[in-house]
Amino acid sequence: MPRQSPFKHHRFPRDIILCAVRWYLRYLLSYQDVVDLLAERDITVDRSTVYRWVQKFGPELTKRTEKHLRRASVDWHVPSRQITA
Fold first, then answer.
1. How many CA atoms, within 13 angstroms, populate the side-chain half-sphere of residue 54?
2. Residue 22 above 70 pLDDT?
3. The pTM is what?
4. Residue 1: is it exposed, middle or buried by C-beta count within 10 angstroms (0-12/13-18/19+)?
5. CA 32 to CA 76: how far, in whole Å?
6. Longest dimension (CA), the chain
7. DSSP character for 78?
8. Coil, strand, or helix at residue 41?
């Protein structure tokens, strides 16, 4: 039996939901900031809707993207320069 899409009963398309959640998680934006960005693209959404999207899709999106993020190395050094007079 095929798995049902988690976006099945939502009013907005999958791409809009993912874009809003991505903006909220990636950039330090408030829910109202995300609503304003969507409004600039003629998409009317309430901030409580964005909140629910982040609560529902945020953990899965974070889990899937974490493995693709590049981790900074703990080891580092400063190259020595030779000073010539």
1. 19
2. yes
3. 0.70
4. exposed
5. 40
6. 77
7. -
8. coil
Tokens linked to 78 = 């400063």
Token pair of 65, please?
């993207």
The candidate with the shortest Cα–Cα distance to 12, out of 4, 22, 20, 2, is 20
Q: At what angle do helices 47-66 and 31-40 cross, to 10 degrees?
A: 100
Which is more confidently placed, 78 or 48?
48
- Token readout for 21 is 């959640």
By C-alpha distance, which of 44, 62, 1 is closest to 16?
44
Q: Which amino acid is at 42?
A: D
What is the tens place of the pLDDT at every residue in 60-81? 888 887 777 766 666 655 565 6
